[in-house]
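Margin note: ligand = copper (II) ion.
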Amino acid sequence: MMLKIKQKTHIIMKNIISFFAFLYCSFVILSASAQEIPLTEAPENAVLYFIEPANLETVSSPVVIKFGLINMGVAPAGINLANTGHHHLLIDLEELPAFDAPLPANDNVRHFGLGQTETTLSLPSGEHTLQLVLGDWLHIPHNNPLVSEKITIIVE
Ligand SMILES: [Cu+2]
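Resulting structure:
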């Protein structure tokens, strides 16, 4: 009888220990995934801007968009080089995407991962907004994110 109780207690203890071990492991995994990916530093004097078109400019489609970057270099995605990034063009995007994760890729968020510094866009006539965001080699905006002015263009 005593032995049985002892055995039972032993099993319960074992279960409790495995439960806590499980909890601990989950905690380690969770805290690792919750831990922020260190953001890439960017020079404080870096500036991202549109060379063209200008804000409120009336243009015809297709329109050439030129990306300007001062005090930083452009490198293709996947190349981890200090003080570089690649361009992302936000088209008609109401809300900025999260800046602590890779930028999404869709019709409204275009990546220029080959290191392009301009593009030609076909846009329907009407008003459109454009904004640039620089992303690091992993498509994540830098610490002190580089974001251009949001411009509006009028497509004839
Ligand atoms: Cu990208």
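DSSP finds one helix and nine strands in the chain.
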